[in-house]
Write a structure and sequence with these properties.
The complex is a heterodimer of chains A (about 350) and B (about 750). With about 350 residues, chain A is mostly helical. In chain A, about 65% of the residues lie in helices and about 5% in strands. Chain A has a 3-stranded antiparallel beta sheet with strand order 1-3-2. In chain A, α5 (about 90-110) packs antiparallel against α6 (about 125-135), α9 packs antiparallel against α10 and α12 runs parallel beside α15. The longest helix of chain A has 25 residues, at about 60-85. Helices cover about 60% and strands about 0% of the residues of chain B. The longest helix of chain B has about 30 residues, at about 1-30. Chain B is elongated, with a radius of gyration of 34 Å. The chains are: A mainly alpha (about 350), B mainly alpha (about 750). The interface of A and B includes residues 270 and 274 of A.
Chain lengths: ~350, ~750
């Protein structure tokens, strides 16, 4: 890894080789703390050097190499520190992020050079590295200025596809966590669609987030897709949501809870319960074939799904939320304990709602 | 402004003291040390006259400023006792008055107080600059401590002006030939180390001065001289703590002292300078303000002269130097011992100006120091340069703000380190020196070296650490080496005075270089200097402060200095990490919850989280539950996911955690019915936490209701659904949302009319 650095070494930069060598040695010794320290020096020296290169951006590939190494070492260093029981998780990464931000500023502030020679071409790579760190240390709010910087950049669509995909992937994930599912779908779909067909692993990673978003928007994945990308954990969830089978959904979520939590999507998948309620209640509606639905009918349905401690008040609560969110067109008559649904299209398609 | 005032005041004072001391000394040395001045050659006579004229020039001006005219005029012996002086001094530093108690009113034994003080000052070499202030201050101030512990104050005992308890004869002013009895002298290795005094003769003064200087204000003054920016850092109290553990072996110093003979003594015809001084005294009593160190320096200069022409030249050069030094007051602050001997050319003057920066000021040479003397006189030659404080000083002045705060922001830190890195290679003398020091001290250099390079980054600590780190063993070794040098120097001296001056300069250059084995260390330094993140590689364990404050409450006080253990109270700050700590924090957190103090609770729970991860357990599950609820409050789905991922089966089975999870579940789905039902059965203090976001949830629920119910919604239903205690409460809440009611029934909400709430 650190060897990348050496490969890129131009002779003019003489201060680094020593550190890069030390860094390499540290890596060889699996002492990533050391490696990280040295790499920081390398990057910092590089930044200084980079600043002196007015109207020149030939050093960007080097920058990519050294910053990538920095992040990787920081990551390992963090793990090593934690293993030793010292330091807070993410400390190293945060520091690395600081350093990367320095670098980013240098790139972002390069306004003088022509577009050809601008260091702004280096921005997206750094942003992606920073995303990786911020997502790891749970500081998503720090992403916002970066996203804005890229979105407002005229180079936005001119970066390499690989970088753009990474960018979209992270922005999509962020949108998902912010409950902006439409945008999340856009970004993640882009990433999934443009990801190289040989990068199955990456595609799978995109899918892990794209699937919940799609489901929330009412698009259920096929079993073939899940099988292709080895995401069968979603299979039961998908079926349960589609059928309005609350019981199955609970089981599926419990069964794969660890996986979902690790991916950070458990809380999103939980929101599928709302969709499941909607589907379940729609079934009730379809069965009763009337737009005046007694609340008791829903209660029976919920009890059938083994929802604990459910009562009429809770049914009202669930219905109220569904109406509030636009999943059901209608109203509750508290006086008559009935749900009155619209005669036209009382359960609008999910994609039309969110 | 205050700083300015101080500075002015200081200079005036200085002069005064200097004069005073000089007087004292001028008289004494003659009697004690050199009874027989050799025959005076005409050249000497000239020299003396020249010097006398210099003195005349400088003296009056200084006296004019003098704050303590009485002092200047009178001999020290005649001076009135302390009290009035103190009054004189204090008005200038009213804001400091809070501090003195730390020093003076210590509950600890006298030894501790002394010791700590000494260390303290040693840490901040510029403290030596403090020597600038009047010796009188010492005299006055000593009394403060003495009240508590008179016998242990060696400084006071040495003070000639204080007749009451002088176990020893007044120390020889200039040269520490007669070793003070070992017993009397508290040997403080740390201090000693730090104090950069070139010649052993000067060192004792330094020591005593340090000790004497009790209140921070004083050395603040001292600091002032070099750079006004320094104001911010005042008291390095921290060293006290650590130092307490190490009782310096007394024999250490004493042995050094007895064995090491200052090079100047034997080799140089002192009598000459003495005579000069005494002659001056005769002419004008006031003009005898020469700092002893300076006298020693003059002595050395003349001593190194081979021929009469040399002497003439030396005289000329010296005159220049001394005039300028005396005029700008630096004569009292610079390290005369380190001052290279004049080269008998223009160059020499330049060198003098440049090399020993004005504020390298080892206060050691200052006159008052001499008076108090006797304490650390055995300071080995070379300490001073090794511990040249200016670097520290400079750092301080450049980045005062950042170093003053315990944890500078990362950005600033980085910035600092960057700038420092660029400087570090440029070969600034001080920094180079400093790093040498670091190397030499081995362990020390990590802390201190870093401190040097990364300006202002926890600088004080670094330095301190160095102090602590140094062991008496090292000290002893060094002392031996120093002795050897001194002896060697002496030999050279006799053989070839020229050589001696060269040698001195050379020694100044090289003495800081550490032994080979530590060569690898500088590398670390470099890294640190470049690495903005290095701060926390600093091993904070080394800097532990075990607090001893037992007050239940105390006033808020901004931390302007290194913490004093007697004021430190919080358990975690005290580095107490036990079940007790957990208990304290848990209790604190509960109280904070009960009082609805969200910030306080957050701090506690964050601290508790750290403690729990250190495997110190208390009501772990209970607080895990609180934390989950707190995340709900902050809407922090990221942390919530993280927290969930760490849940084990056992945790989930815990009543509190299970409860929190149920709340989370209901909350996530917007199931207000369930949420408020659960709310009523909150265990422990969970209810208080939910209270924090209760209104938020109620508001959301009311919105959903208003949107979904038609045509009306009974207030009573809302009240029961949203867990209001009574109808009034509910109505108050609804009114807050400006909900409208049915015109025919005030007990029902008109949902359609109330849609504006959304």
């Amino acid at each position: 890894m650190a060897c990348n650095v050496l490969n890129y070494f131009p002779s003019i930069i003489h201060t680094w080789p020593m550190f890069a060598c030390r860094c390499t040695r540290a890596v060889a010794n699996h002492d990533f703390l050391e490696a990280y320290k040295y790499q920081t020096i390398v990057v910092q020296s590089f930044i200084k050097e980079l600043q002196t290169h007015k109207e020149d951006n030939w050093a960007l590939p080097i920058m990519n190499a050294v910053t990538l190494d920095l992040r990787i070492f920081a990551n390992y260093a963090d793990q090593q520190l934690r293993k030793k029981g010292r330091g807070k998780a993410g400390d190293m990464l945060e520091k690395a992020a600081d350093t990367l931000m320095n670098c980013f500023r240098v790139c972002a502030c390069d306004n003088r050079a022509g577009i050809e020679d601008s260091k702004k071409w280096g921005m997206l790579f750094l942003v992606n590295q920073l995303f990786k760190i911020y997502f790891k240390i749970n500081k998503l709010h720090l992403c916002k200025p970066l996203i804005r910087a890229i979105d407002s950049s005229q180079l936005r669509d001119s970066y390499t596809m690989a970088q753009r995909i990474t960018f979209k992937y992270y922005v999509g994930r962020k949108a998902m966590f912010d409950s902006d599912f439409k945008q999340a779908e856009d970004y993640l779909s882009f990433a999934f669609a443009h990801c190289h067909r040989d990068s199955q692993k990456n595609k799978r990673m995109v899918l892990i987030y794209l699937l919940p978003v799609k489901m929330l928007l009412g698009h259920m994945p096929t079993v073939q897709l899940l099988r292709k990308y080895d995401l069968m954990q979603f299979a039961d969830v998908t079926r349960a949501v589609g059928e309005g089978n609350l019981l199955l959904l609970n089981e599926a979520l419990n069964k794969h809870e660890t996986f979902f939590i690790r991916c950070g999507i458990f809380l999103i998948l939980e929101k599928l319960k709302i969709i499941t309620y909607r589907n379940l209640f729609k079934k009730v509606y379809l069965l009763l074939k009337t737009h005046l639905l007694p609340l008791g009918a829903f209660l029976v349905a919920l009890q059938f799904m083994k929802v604990e401690n459910v009562d009429l008040d809770e049914v009202q609560c669930l219905l109220a939320n569904l109406i509030f969110n636009g999943h059901i067109k209608g109203y509750i008559s508290h006086q008559h304990q009935k749900l009155v649904v619209s005669k036209q299209n009382p359960f609008p398609p999910l994609s039309a709602i969110i | 402004m205050a700083a300015l005032q101080q500075a002015q005041w200081l200079s005036g004072n200085q002069a005064a003291q200097a004069a005073q001391w000089a007087q004292q000394y001028s008289g004494m040395p003659a009697s004690v040390e050199t009874p027989q001045p050799p025959k005076e050659t005409p050249e000497w006579e000239k020299a003396r006259q020249a010097l006398a004229s210099i003195q005349k020039e400088s003296a009056p001006a200084e006296v004019g400023i003098n704050v303590f005219p009485a002092r200047v005029a009178g001999t020290p012996e005649m001076q009135p006792p302390v009290p009035q002086d103190t009054t004189g001094v204090q008005p200038y530093y009213p804001w400091y008055q809070q501090y003195p108690y730390c020093y003076n009113m210590h509950p600890y034994n006298n030894y501790y107080a002394q010791y700590s003080m000494g260390v303290q000052y040693s840490m901040y070499p510029h403290a030596q600059m403090a020597t600038q202030y009047p010796p009188t201050t010492f005299a006055q101030q000593t009394p403060q401590t003495p009240e508590a512990q008179p016998p242990d104050l060696p400084e006071s005992s040495h003070l000639p002006p204080q007749p009451p308890t002088p176990p020893q004869p007044p120390p020889p002013p200039l040269l520490p030939q007669p070793p003070t009895p070992p017993g009397n002298k508290p040997a403080f290795p740390e201090r000693t180390r730090i104090f950069p005094t070139a010649t052993s003769s000067c060192s004792p003064f330094v020591e005593s001065v340090k000790r004497e200087v009790k209140s921070p204000q004083q050395w603040q003054k001292g600091k002032q001289a070099p750079g006004a920016a320094a104001l911010k850092f005042n008291l390095p109290k921290r060293p006290l703590v650590t130092s307490t553990n190490r009782v310096p072996p007394q024999q250490n110093n004493s042995t050094q002292q007895t064995k090491g003979s200052p090079l100047t003594l034997q080799s140089i015809p002192k009598s000459h300078t003495e005579k000069v001084a005494s002659a001056q005294n005769k002419t004008t009593p006031k003009q005898a303000e020469w700092p002893p160190a300076m006298k020693a320096y003059v002595e050395r200069c003349f001593g190194s002269c081979g021929s009469e022409t040399d002497k003439d030249q030396t005289e000329r050069v010296l005159k220049q130097i001394l005039t300028s030094r005396l005029n700008d007051g630096s004569a009292y602050t610079i390290d005369w011992g380190k001052e290279p001997l004049p080269d008998l050319g223009k160059e020499a003057v330049k060198v003098n100006r440049r090399l020993p920066t004005q504020w390298s000021g080892t206060g050691g040479e200052t006159p008052k120091a001499g008076v108090v003397a006797g304490v650390g006189r055995d300071l080995p030659f070379g300490y001073q340069s090794r511990f040249g404080n200016r670097n520290v000083f400079r750092k301080r002045s450049t980045s005062s703000s950042s170093s003053s705060s315990p944890s500078p922001s990362p950005r600033r830190r980085r910035h600092n380190s960057d700038s420092s890195s660029s400087h570090s290679d440029s070969g600034e003398t001080p920094s180079a020196m400093q790093s040498h020091i670091g190397r030499r001290l081995g362990v020390l250099d990590r802390g201190r070296g870093r401190a040097d390079r990364g300006r202002g980054r926890g600088r004080g600590r670094g330095a301190q650490r160095g102090d602590m780190k140094e062991t008496t063993g090292q000290n002893r070794r060094r002392a031996r080496r120093e002795r050897q040098w001194r002896q060697a120097g002496l030999r050279f001296d006799v053989e070839d005075p020229e050589k001696e001056s060269k040698r001195q300069r050379r020694a100044a250059r090289f003495q800081n270089q550490g032994p080979k084995k530590l060569r690898s260390e500088p590398l670390v330094l470099q890294i640190n200097s470049l690495d903005g993140s290095s701060v926390d590689t600093l091993d904070w364990d080394e800097l532990k402060i075990v607090g001893s404050c037992q007050d239940i409450t105390k006033k808020y006080l901004r931390l302007t200095c290194a913490p004093d253990p007697s004021m430190v109270r919080s358990v975690v700050v005290q580095c107490v990490r036990t079940e007790f700590t957990v208990e304290v924090y848990e209790t604190h957190a509960r109280i904070a919850l009960e009082k609805g103090d969200r910030e306080e609770f957050n701090q506690c729970q964050a601290q508790l989280k750290a403690l729990y991860t250190d495997n110190i357990f208390g009501s772990t599950n209970e607080f895990l539950a609180y934390r989950i609820l707190y995340y709900i409050f902050t809407n922090n789905s990221g942390d919530l996911t993280t927290a969930l991922s760490f849940l084990t089966k056992e945790m989930k089975d815990d009543a509190c955690v299970a409860y929190a999870l149920r709340v989370r579940n209901a909350w996530a789905l917007g199931n207000y019915h369930r949420f408020f039902r659960i709310y009523r059965e909150a265990p422990c203090m969970a209810g208080y936490l939910i209270d924090m976001f209760l209104d938020r949830e109620r508001k959301a629920a009311v919105k959903a209701m208003i949107k979904s119910y038609r045509p009306a919604l009974p207030v009573q239903y809302v009240q029961s659904e949203l867990a209001f205690g009574n109808e009034d409460e509910c109505r108050a809440f609804l009114d807050g949302l400006s909900v409208s009611y049915m015109s025919n029934d005030q007990g029902k909400i008109d949902c359609k009319q109330s849609l504006s709430v959304l």
